[in-house]
């Protein structure tokens, strides 16, 4: 009885293995069939385009031949009868008539002009004119796109921020999925963990600032007092009355512009509300990208023209891989920058070294210039709080040294393989992004350039592969 039960279990295992092997084989056949179908569609599209070009060329040749036959009559042909249909019966030889050049040759005559005005325009001018109106059309389209983005900048920046955060958290979701966690639970756990991490970092920064506020305030007051003594006893030799007059002028200016300051306060409240709305919208979009990103991408592909779906279906995963590598590499570089500068600030004795390191970490998301700009705050705090020019210079040297480390070692080593963008393109992109969209535009500019570079490279390779396939098919047909 035991042997029969054991044999039954083994047969059941064998049947399950056979079913699994069959399912795997069927999936493999579907994958190969999909690849073959895409290659067939690509070859068919290339063949249709080439056939259309050949038909157009034959039509042009026939038209040119007909025009030549029409304008150049055959030698030895009988002359046409005179007008009215009458035929000469006498033997009088008519006076010879001066032959007239054909209509299409009038342009070569000194006093003639071409029948078609287009023929009188030089070729280079025609090319320049056609290129100009196409460039103007592209410029108008880009202007409309930028105007729409500027109108909906809150939605646009929230969506882009959600894409960047999703690119950072998606590997965690994939890792949980590989270990048997359902998709919804994996997305929820990853999203909540990321949200908790951001909240803990914000609480830590607030705690550090509030706990060090009183000592820093007293240090700043001492620095201001020393600055006043330096202005009175230093090379400027200001008198107390002159210094008091400057202080009174500043106070008067503040009193006169109180209305502007009040309106600025209301503007600050509006910005705070928009910021909160953007954070909520970003969080909402991030969760759905983590949970249902594949279906969202399929919906986007269905909205494209049919002949563009295959190309974008291959370019999409490559663009996502580039974006993921960029975000993860940028986070690593920003962490190293903040860690090195924070350790340097602590060694020099600058107050609030950890909050300053967090600010530098956030600023490092703008490549090449972000950490340098935010590090300037640390230099100013070192100058005012410690009232020491030497310590401020030491902080500046540390900042420049970390920037050199980032530009020559960290960026090429961590981001060089995944994001092949020239430093000049990075600098110009950051400048253009900051002009168009401020700080969010500067953050978004470089990943947008990297993704665009990846997509265009993939499309070029795909077109080149399609040409090779078509040439191979043509060579096989000729044989």
TrEMBL record:
Residues 61-113 are annotated as: Disordered. Residues 61-86 have a biased composition (Low complexity). It comes from the Bacteria. The chain crosses the membrane at residues 132-149, 155-173, 185-206, 266-291, 325-347, 353-373, 380-402, 422-451. Pfam families: AI-2E_transport (PF01594). Keywords: Cell membrane, Membrane, Transmembrane, Transmembrane helix, Transport. It is a multi-pass membrane protein. It is found in: Cell membrane. InterPro entries: AI-2E-like. The keyword Transmembrane helix applies. Its main location: membrane. PANTHER family: PERMEASE PERM-RELATED (PTHR21716:SF53), TRANSMEMBRANE PROTEIN (PTHR21716). Belongs to the autoinducer-2 exporter (AI-2E) (TC 2.A.86) family. This is PurR-regulated permease PerM. It comes from Kitasatospora saccharophila.
């Amino acid at each position: 009885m035991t042997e029969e039960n054991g044999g039954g279990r083994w047969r059941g295992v064998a049947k399950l293995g056979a079913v699994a092997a069959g399912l795997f084989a069927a999936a493999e056949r579907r994958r190969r069939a999909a690849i073959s179908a895409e290659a067939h569609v690509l070859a068919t599209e290339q063949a249709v385009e080439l056939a259309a070009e050949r038909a157009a060329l034959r039509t042009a040749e026939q038209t040119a031949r007909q025009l030549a036959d029409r304008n150049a009559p055959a030698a030895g042909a009988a002359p046409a009868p005179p007008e009215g249909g009458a035929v000469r019966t006498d033997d009088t030889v008519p006076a010879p008539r001066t032959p007239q050049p054909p209509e299409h040759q009038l342009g070569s005559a000194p006093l003639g002009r071409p029948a078609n005005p287009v023929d009188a325009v030089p070729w280079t001018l025609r090319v320049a004119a056609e290129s100009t109106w196409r460039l103007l059309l592209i410029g108008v389209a880009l202007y409309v796109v930028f105007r729409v983005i500027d109108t909906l900048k809150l939605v646009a920046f929230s969506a882009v921020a959600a894409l960047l955060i999703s690119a950072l958290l998606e590997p965690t979701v994939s890792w949980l999925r590989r270990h048997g966690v359902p998709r919804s639970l994996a997305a929820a756990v990853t999203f909540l963990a990321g949200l908790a991490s951001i909240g803990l970092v914000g609480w830590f920064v607030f705690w550090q600032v509030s706990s060090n506020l009183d000592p820093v305030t007293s240090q700043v007051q001492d620095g201001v007092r020393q600055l006043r003594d330096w202005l009175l006893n230093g090379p400027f030799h200001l008198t107390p009355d002159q210094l008091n007059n400057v202080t009174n002028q500043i106070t008067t200016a503040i009193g006169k512009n109180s209305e502007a300051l009040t309106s600025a306060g209301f503007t600050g409240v509006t910005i705070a509300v928009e910021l909160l709305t953007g954070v909520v919208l970003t969080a909402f979009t991030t969760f759905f990208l983590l949970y249902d990103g594949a279906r969202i991408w399929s919906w986007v592909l269905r909205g494209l023209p049919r002949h563009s779906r295959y190309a974008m279906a291959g370019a999409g995963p490559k663009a996502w891989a580039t974006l993921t590598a960029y975000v993860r590499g940028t986070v690593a570089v920003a962490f190293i920058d903040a860690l090195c500068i924070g350790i340097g600030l602590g060694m020099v004795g600058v107050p609030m070294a950890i909050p300053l390191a967090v600010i530098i970490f956030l600023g490092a998301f703008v490549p090449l210039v972000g950490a340098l700009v935010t590090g300037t705050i640390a230099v100013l705090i070192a100058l005012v709080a410690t009232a020491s020019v030497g310590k401020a210079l030491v902080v500046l040297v540390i900042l420049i040294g970390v920037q050199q480390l980032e530009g020559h070692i960290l960026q090429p080593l961590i981001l060089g393989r995944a994001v092949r963008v020239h430093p000049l393109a990075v600098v110009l992109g950051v400048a253009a992004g900051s002009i168009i969209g401020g700080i969010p535009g500067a953050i978004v500019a470089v990943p947008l350039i990297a993704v665009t570079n990846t997509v265009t490279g993939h499309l070029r390779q795909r077109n080149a592969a399609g040409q090779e396939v078509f040439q191979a098919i043509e060579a096989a047909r000729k044989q």
